[in-house]
Every structure is written in structure tokens, then in C-alpha cells.
Write a structure and sequence with these properties.
The chain has about 120 residues and is mainly alpha-helical. The chain has one domain (about 5-95). About 60% of the residues lie in helices and about 0% in strands. The protein has five helices and no strands. The longest helix has 24 residues, at about 100-120. It is globular and about 45 Å long. The N and C termini lie far apart (about 40 Å).
Length: about 120
């Protein structure tokens, strides 16, 4: 398990997208809580509000919202987050490798097709 980065699967993933190049490297022991330097306090708060139950289940310690102190987002706030997210995604797409974009578009189309089938079955 500790040599996962040397596997053929890791090599395949690393060549499939620039976002996966580091999977052929071993785990960096000092690479913990990096999000504290890279995310804003607001971003950490939002993440913990959305994914706090998963963090708890996996044994991660929260840094912004204590378990049981969560709040619910209004539909207006969620719409605002979605708009910001779409804008940030559009910015990233401007600088992405065209081949990577094609792969992602194919994946998105496949997921959309699968979801459409699930809706028909349900």
C-alpha cells in the first residue's frame, strides 16, 4: 500500500491529466493542513458546514465549525455559492490543456447520460 505511487494505475492517472501528476509521488509527511494556508477562513467554514459529517466519520478534526454547531444555508446563499463556483470553473477552463478539456467534457457527457437514465428508471 505504501508504494501505491509506483503502480501502473498511478502512472496511467498521472498521464491522463495535469491535475493528477503528483499521484506518482510518495505521500509527503509534512503536507498536512495545507488548506489552512491556501483557503480563506470563509472557504474553510463553508467546506466544514457542507462536509462536516464526512470529516467526522473519517476522523478529521474540524477547525472552524464544531460538531453540532452547524447552520443551514439559505437557497439564496446556495445560489450565490453556485454562481461563484461557475465563475471560478470558467476561469480555470481558460488555462487548461485542450486535451484535458476534451476528456473532461466526455466524462461530463457520460455522467449526464447516466443521470438521465436513472431519472427515467426512477
Amino acid at each position: 500500500m505504501l508504494d501505491f505511487h509506483q503502480s501502473q494505475e498511478a502512472s496511467n492517472a498521472a498521464t491522463s491529466s495535469s491535475l493528477w501528476t503528483n499521484v506518482t509521488q510518495p505521500v509527503i509527511k509534512q503536507n498536512t493542513k495545507k488548506f489552512l494556508q491556501e483557503a480563506t477562513d470563509e472557504e474553510i467554514l463553508i467546506f466544514e458546514l457542507v462536509a462536516g459529517d464526512v470529516l467526522d466519520a473519517l476522523g478529521y478534526q474540524r477547525v472552524g465549525i464544531l460538531q453540532g454547531k452547524e447552520i443551514k444555508f439559505s437557497s439564496t446563499a446556495i445560489a450565490k455559492f453556485n454562481a461563484i463556483n461557475q465563475s471560478l470553473k470558467a476561469e480555470v477552463r481558460q488555462t487548461m490543456d485542450p486535451e484535458d478539456l476534451k476528456r473532461r467534457d466526455r466524462q461530463a457527457s457520460l455522467l449526464k447520460e447516466i443521470k438521465a437514465r436513472q431519472t427515467v428508471v426512477a
